[in-house]
Amino acid sequence: MTGAAAALAGSGAGTAWWATYRLLMAQAGAARGVIGRDTSKPPEADGIYTAGCVEPEPWRTGKHADLHLMIFGDSTAAGVGCVVADEVPGVRLARGLADATGQRVRLSTKAISGATSKGLSGQVDAMFVAGPPPDAAVILIGANDVTKKHSIRASARRLAAAVARLRRADAVVVVGTCPNLGTVTAIPQPLRSVVHNWSVRLARAQRVATTVAGGHPVSMGYLLATEFRAAPELLFAADGFHPSAAGYELAAAQLLPVLVDALDGTPASGTPRQDVNSIRIRE
């Protein structure tokens, strides 16, 4: 190829790349405008749950609970999109644990809407400041890491560090990995294909990181993508991004048996297998 032809070809490729980049950035801005509308605070859900209880008992010093469950992560962990407390994923898990074990289960929520994996360390810090560590922790994180374009490797290592800290404090840890954002129809194509790929890769890295750190991963995107694609009007909230009550119910149904088994001593218990900084995770 002559120098002139090569220059023209390179120029054409550069122009195409720039046009694609501008399209994706424009779509990202439009998607943020659509999916960022729900700024409502999730229903208050913390308290003590017992089998068959209608309302939880408020927690205060001196109250007794057999099992302390704590929820960490982002808006999906907090329950954004829920209308009443019974729809919140933490409540569904606390009620499920109480029904399965017959124990008094205290629910505490540290999750913060908008959090990324960077924020997990602060949530765990807050837990240690507030009191003793929980018996069980559930972490739901990853979607915001994708939308904010954080490094997959760095995000997975931050998750591993949080899991390892909780495991060293003798908490059982269950992690719901990044949801498949390719199911979110509020995100247009071709951007949806990009975030689908990114979220799948992050979920895969989170699964490795969680396992190495001593936790129990649950592949939420893999398990739920088919259902969310088939019935988006039922499983997404009004903002088209967060799950609806039915979506959270479906998610909790995947997490609960893993949580029950983990508390019962099914493998994956124990301290981290290695220093989380040495984990090798492919982008």
Explain what this protein looks like in three dimensions.
By secondary structure, this protein is of the alpha/beta class. The protein contains ten helices and six strands, in the order αββααβαβααβαβααα. It has helices at 3-35, 75-78, 89-101, 120-130, 143-147, 152-168, 191-212, 220-230, 232-235, 245-263; strands at residues 47-49, 67-73, 105-109, 136-140, 172-176, 216-218. Strands 1-3-2-4-5-6 form a six-stranded mixed beta sheet, sandwiched between helices. α6 runs parallel beside α7 (191-212). The two termini are 35 Å apart.
Characteristics of this structure?
six-stranded mixed beta sheet; alpha/beta; 10 helices; disordered N terminus
Helices and strands in order, then pairings?
Blueprint lengths: L2 H33 L11 E3 L17 E7 L1 H4 L10 H13 L3 E5 L10 H11 L5 E5 L2 H5 L4 H17 L3 E5 L14 H22 L3 E3 L1 H11 L1 H4 L9 H19 L20
Parallel strand pairs: 2-3, 2-4, 4-5, 5-6
Antiparallel strand pairs: 1-3
Share of residues in helices: 40-55%
The sequence of SSEs as H and E is HEEHHEHEHHEHEHHH
Secondary structure category: alpha/beta
Overall geometry: globular
Radius of gyration: 21 Å
- Work out the helix count: 10
Low-pLDDT runs: 1-9, 268-276
Distance between the termini: 35 Å
Number of strands: 6
For the biggest β-sheet, the strand order reads 1-3-2-4-5-6
- The amount of beta strand, in percent, is 5-15%
Largest sheet entry: 6 strands, mixed
Overall pLDDT: 86
